Structure formats: C-alpha cells, structure tokens
Amino acid sequence: MSAALSASLYDRVRRVVPPMEWAVFAPDVEAILRLKRERNAVILAHNYMTPEIFHCVADIVGDSLHLAREAQRVRADVIVMAGVHFMAETAKMLNPGSRVLIPDLEAGCSLASSITAADVRLLRERYPGVPVVTYVNTSAAVKAESDICCTSGNARRVIESLRTPQVIMLPDQYLAANVARETGVKIISWAGSCEVHERFTPAQIRTLRAGNPGVVVLAHPECPPEVVAESDFAGSTAAMADYVTDRQPGRVVLITECSMADNIAVLHPRVEFVRPCNLCPHMKRITLPKLRATLETLTHEVTIDPAVADRARLAVERMLAI
Ligand code: SF4
Fold first, then answer.
1. What is the pLDDT of residue 191?
2. Exposure of 119 by Cβ count < 10 A (0-12 exposed, 13-18 middle, 19+ buried)?
3. Using CA positions, which residue lies closest to atom 3 of ligand 1?
4. Helices (H), 162-305
5. Could you report the per-residue pLDDT of 109-158, keeping only the tens digit for each?
6. Whose Cα sits closest to atom 6 in ligand 1?
C-alpha cells in the first residue's frame, strides 16, 4: 500500500487505533482492498465491528436493518458479512444470486440460539391465530415459521402494522418488554436475551451519572427495561448514531457493545464518549486476518435450503415493505 493511502486510511481511525496497532493492521487492510477488487466483492459490516474493519475495509456499514436493505441492492459476485451468522443468512436470502461468505462460522448470537423452528410451531399451536413477529436476530429456519420480522429500530411499527390485539414476539424478552411499554398491543414473549445487553444494570447507569456529570445515556432496547428506564434515550445502534450526529451532546455514553462508541467517536471529535461497554464475543470473532482469508479462499459460504429461504424471505420482505 502506498504511504499516502496508508496515511489517509489511518487518518480515519487515528483517534482510536494507536500507531503500533496500525502497523500490524496495514498489510491485511491492503490485501483485503486488493482482494475485493479481484473478487468483485463487497463487505457489509455491522456497527459492532472494530474500527479498522468498520472504517478501513467495509463498503457498507450499519445496523442489521440497514445491512438487510443494502444486501438486497448489492450487485457483486461476492458478499462478505462482517457480522454474525444470522446476518449472513439474511443477506443470502435477500440476494440469492451472490455468493455470501462469513469469515467465521462460529460467529453466532445468544438470541439466535435461544429458539428453534420447532419452538415457534409449538407456540403457534398454543396461541392459534396470533401472528408471530420475529426479531431478525434469529436463524432462517425460525424466520421461515414467522409472519413478519422486525429489528430493534422498527419493532413497534411492525407490531402495530398487524392491527391485532396481541402478537407473539420472539425471541428477545427485553426488547419485547421495552416495546410493550410503548404500545397497546399485548405481547407474548420468549425467554431469549442478548448476552451483551442483559449484563448492564440500573446501578451501573446511576454510578456513571454520578461520576460523569451531565452525561447523556443512550441505551439499546435489548437492555433490560430497568436499564432503559434509567436512560435518556433508547434506540437501535442506528438511532444512537443519529442522536449523536444530530444533537452533539457534550458527553455521552452508549449502553451497548464496545466497538459502537469507537466507531462513532472518530466522527465526532467534540463529543466526549464515556466508555463502559460489554464485548460481544461473537462479533469479535470477525478480524482483519479472517476477512483476508475469506477473500483469499472464498470460504465460508453461507447457504440456505431454498424451501426455507423462500418462506423466511417473505417474513423479511414484509418487514422491509413497512
Ligand atoms: S450483541 Fe447480542 S444480539 Fe448482537 S450478536 Fe452479540 S449476542 Fe447477538
């Protein structure tokens, strides 16, 4: 990589990546940029990717809703998902003509693994006629058993669009409880949770406020409702990013995965980010060396049984149409 290109890429992340780390990252960044051209590949990266992935090699970044929308539009031979497995499945479902790769097949999600297609069928038997709204953080097989999908950014809108007095909302008990506080629709939930967001506590927020006067607290709706109640704002990672961009708080804390604050902080030098956070072990399986290996070897390909994919796609497309 030319010194000028390396310097301009490093400029994007210098506030959160020390020079010694950049020296380690630069060869992989250079190789990934070259391989993307050779393979006609596009990298989609979730907001929880580390800054050198998010700012230096990704083509499209965002929350799961944005990545799903963009996956549908991408025209490339190869889509690499810098995110977790359900996101790669969603990309494959919405763009079946592209080869979809994930750098680590073990990059899962505690929400996605909390429920199976058989569980959804049992719930349908128990609550006949009640529509099933499924969070995108689920396997394609679970989506295939659902009426419609939702994300943390559109859950309330999706539920109210069904115009029914009650819905089954799967699998995040906390997202369901947080949405239930905002809507008159009765919500039957499931006992799944995000292992990252469920660890935050109200006491932690109070301690943060005491130690950081004036701090604005933004929480992800996968946090327990008591945590959301202690916060100033709750929203998806995209909504948090918009909040910081639009309101430029003097001091802010994002109650979510660690890389989120790093990725936004580089764009807002005048905002002070207080950084208690929890790492997602699944997201952190995706690294620059693994991204490089994925593009070199064209592994690991994500495939879905076409019959499952067709039904799951319907649930996702119904959401995207709202
Ligand atoms: S942060 Fe939580 S919801 Fe997101 S991938 Fe990790 S475990 Fe799943």
1. 98
2. middle
3. 194
4. 173-180, 202-211, 225-229, 237-247, 258-265, 288-297
5. 999 999 999 999 999 999 999 999 999 999 999 999 999 999 998 999 99
6. 280
In degrees to the nearest 10, what's the CA dihedral of 46, 40, 106, 65?
A: 30
Contact 240, 260 (CB under 8 A): yes
- Compute φ and ψ for 16, nearest 5 degrees: -125, -5
87 within ligand 1 shell (Cβ under 6 A): no
State yes or no: cis peptide before 171, omega within 30 of 0. yes
Q: Is 144 in the pocket of ligand 1 (CB under 6 A)?
A: no
Rounded distance between C-alpha atoms, residue 223 and residue 227, angstroms: 6
Measured from the Cα of 256, ligand 1's closest atom is 1
The three-class DSSP label of residue 19 is: helix
Mutate to test the pocket of ligand 1, among 49, 280, 284, 286 (most ligand atoms within 8 A of CB): 280
Whether the per-residue pLDDT at 36 is higher than 90: the answer is: yes
How long, in residues, is the chain? 322
Q: Report the SS3 class of residue 167.
A: strand
Instruction: Round to whole Å and give the CA distance between 157 and 153.
Output: 9
Residue nearest to ligand 1 atom 2, measured at CA: 194
pLDDT, residue 1, reads 79
Closest protein CA for atom 7 of ligand 1: 109
